[in-house]
Write a structure and sequence with these properties.
The protein is α+β, with helices and mostly antiparallel strands and 350 residues long. Among the domains are: 69 residues, DnaJ domain (Helix Hairpins); 110 residues, Urease metallochaperone UreE, N-terminal domain (HSP40/DNAj peptide-binding domain). The protein is built from eight helices and 15 strands. A hairpin with a 5-residue loop joins β4 and β5. α1 packs across α3. The longest helix is centred in the N-terminal third of the chain and has 26 residues.
């Protein structure tokens, strides 16, 4: 396994050679940790020296073992930049059509002017972003503490000879925070709380040119006239009295701005409030569109419109004369008589 010169002092601390095996490293660490454990020393001066040695042994062991756990014995950094999560509002039209939507989000990115070259490796933590510290509460343990000099980044601001930052844009920090335009396609049929991962659209960091991911949680806004039931879409269609007596309307405009043809009700059949029409394949993927008629009764009717309505009523009356005679002879209950006139189709999921 390839060794690096910056690990040599760690081998010296453990009293082993660079050619030692992984088991040799563990064995040396266990023996020295036991020997220099602070709890084994009584007087304060001896305990202080042991604590310092104990921390150095733990740090050396940690650094050496990284060579066995990571390729080429590189310095330990986070495996990837943390994700950024955000909730985005989308409309029912966006979900139905699969539209591309956009929004602006403040994100930390590497400075485009200096490419984060205005920073140098932090000498305090040697680029690790943390220190090992001895904690004596509830037994002696070694804990990791974030480096205060670099804030856990592993790099710090680089100054010139006059103690001025080398990059005017990022002031030597290597990272700038700007509002970024993000655009992505909404999956057709998506629901609220659905998660979309946008790889490489998150924040940057000093250590690597890679970016984290941006995780978008969708929030589908309510529509003014359509509601969703499973994969089906349900809409109320308001018609006036004349349309109710003459077969309804011929078409409606859908979410994608298309005109959808509506099957006309059989001539002579009056449309009652709640009459439902199913149009297959016009809902979300795998669903249908349901149109529920609502009849608007006028408070007054002008002379031209009243003539049209009267004629429609007379035609309906003449067409259903035989039905009324048959119905009167059998004397069904009012509830049954209403049911024979209207039986709306049932919406799936209700």
């Amino acid at each position: 396994m390839k060794r690096h010169h910056h690990h040599l002092p760690h081998y010296v601390t453990l009293g082993i050679s660079e050619t030692s095996s992984k088991d040799d490293v563990k064995r040396a660490w266990r023996l020295l940790s036991k020997k220099f454990h602070p709890d084994r020393h009584r007087d304060d001066e001896s305990k202080a020296r042991a604590s310092e040695k104990f921390i150095a042994i733990a740090a050396a062991y940690t650094e050496i073992m990284k060579q066995y756990e990571e390729p080429f014995g590189t310095l330990s950094r986070p495996a990837r930049v943390p994700d950024v999560c955000v909730e985005v509002d989308v409309t029912l039209e966006d979900v139905y059509c699969g539209n591309r939507v956009g929004f602006r989000l403040p994100l930390r990115r590497r400075c485009p002017d200096c490419g984060a070259k205005a920073t140098i490796l932090c000498e305090q933590c040697e680029g690790e972003g943390f220190h090992l510290d001895l904690k004596l509460e509830a037994g002696s343990t070694v804990v990791r503490k974030q480096c205060s000099a670099c804030g856990g980044e592993g790099r710090r601001v680089c100054w010139d000879d006059n103690h001025r930052t080398l990059c005017k844009r990022c002031k030597g920090h290597g990272i700038v925070r700007n509002k970024v335009e993000i655009r992505f396609p909404v999956p057709q049929g998506a629901r609220s709380h659905e998660r979309i991962r946008l790889e490489g659209e998150g924040e940057g960091c000093l250590w690597t040119e890679d970016r984290g991911d941006l995780v978008v949680f969708l929030k589908v806004l309510e529509h003014a006239s359509l509601r969703r039931v499973g994969q089906d879409l349900v809409s109320a269609v308001t018609i006036d009295l004349a349309q109710a007596l003459t077969g309804g309307i011929s078409c409606v405009r859908h979410l994608d701005d298309r005109l959808i043809e509506i099957p006309r009700v059989e001539t002579g059949t009056a449309i009652r409030p709640g009459y439902t029409i199913r149009i297959k394949g016009e809902g979300m993927p795998g669903g249908d569109l349901y149109l529920i008629y609502q009849v608007s009764w006028p408070s007054r009717i002008d002379s031209a419109r009243s003539s049209e309505i009267v004629q429609a009523v007379l035609r309906w009356h003449e067409a259903h004369k035989e039905d009324r005679v048959s119905s009167s002879s059998s004397s069904p209950s009012p509830r049954k008589r209403q049911k024979t006139v209207f039986e709306p189709c049932k919406i799936k999921g209700q």
